[in-house]
Specification:
Bound molecules: adenosine-5'-diphosphate, magnesium ion
Protein name: Polar amino acid ABC transporter ATP-binding protein
Helix content: 40-55%
Family: Belongs to the ABC transporter superfamily.
GO molecular function, one term: ABC-type amino acid transporter activity
Largest sheet: 6 strands, mixed
Pfam family, one: ABC_tran
Oligomer: single chain
Strand order of the largest sheet: 6-7-8-3-9-10
Shape: globular
Radius of gyration: 19 Å
Keywords: ATP-binding, Nucleotide-binding, Transport
Length: 260
């Protein structure tokens, strides 16, 4: 056992938690003169499920996009899976491999089949052989419940099916962290459940997940912790039960009264 492993094992015996997979310390970001993130600090443990909610425009998307460097922060520290997010381009590639993301708009390539959408990343970025990528791709389509759609094009699928393809595509890179930005907001009501079911199953595999959503049933059931954003700050952070039953901040109370 090397010294650091030994230290970790000793830490675990002493009841200390492992190093967080995500560390944010006083993260600030501006769009021009607009101060969009005003000192966000939080940590996420390996395997933890964090739901992020808050009013429109409060910085939720910007925040999770800083975690895979789709947005740069200008002050503070972000460390993701041991990688400090700096201007160093090599880090950006490593981060994008480690962190999968699913967007509100599914962002599939319309001219590629479902299977091609899912295998493109591994084939290019990981230089995986085509057959190998296809075996994994089919497994993932099976996992998200649409193996029979492999050779269709995104335009031939329902919104719920397209979003499940987008999840399979992100998983094909074998990420350690999955970010979801309002993954069900563009879906018709009857399709929301099928996407949340896939996310719930993913949660059971132990994946670290950060999910921006207003699906409070999902949050109650799956989240270990809820972060409430308002005007570029985390104004409240709690376990689901305490968050819903006893919100402390006036802004949280107002938000919950509007959406529940
Ligand atoms: P949320 O996801 O909580 O709705 P966003 O993170 O998308 O909020 O946006 C936070 C604020 O930053 C909003 O006021 C939005 O208009 C602004 N904003 C987002 N992206 C940009 C951008 N690329 N340039 C300028 N302003 C932006
Ligand atoms: Mg958003």
């Amino acid at each position: 056992m090397n010294p650091s492993t030994a230290a970790q094992a000793a830490g675990a015996r002493a009841g200390k938690t492992e190093e967080p997979i995500i560390l944010c310390q006083d993260v600030h970001k501006w769009f021009g003169s607009f101060h969009v993130l005003k000192g966000v600090s939080t940590t996420v443990a390996r395997g933890e499920k964090v739901v992020i909610c808050g009013p429109s425009g409060s910085g939720k998307s910007t925040f999770i996009r800083t975690l895979n460097r789709l947005e740069e922060h200008q002050r503070g520290r972000i460390v993701v899976d041991g990688i400090e997010l700096t201007g160093d381009l090599k880090n950006v590639e490593a981060i994008r491999r480690d962190v999968g993301m699913v967007f509100q708009e599914f962002n599939l390539f319309p001219h590629l089949t479902v299977l091609q959408n899912v295998t493109l990343g591994p084939a290019w970025v990981k230089r995986q052989r085509r057959e190998e990528a296809e075996v994994l791709g089919r497994e993932l389509l099976e996992r998200v419940g649409i193996p029979e759609q492999a050779h269709k094009y995104p335009g031939q699928l329902s919104g719920g099916q397209q979003q499940r393809v987008a999840i399979a595509r992100a998983l094909a890179m074998q990420p350690r962290i999955m970010l979801f930005d309002e993954p069900t907001s563009a879906l018709d009501p009857e399709m929301i459940k099928e996407v949340l079911d896939v996310m719930r199953e993913l949660a059971h595999t132990g994946m670290t997940m950060l999910v921006v959503t207003h699906e409070m049933g999902f949050a109650r059931e799956v989240a270990d912790r809820i972060l409430f954003f308002d005007q570029g700050e985390i104004v409240e952070e709690n376990e689901p039960e305490a968050f819903f039953e006893g919100p402390r901040h006036e802004r949280t109370k107002l938000f919950l009264s509007q959406i529940l």
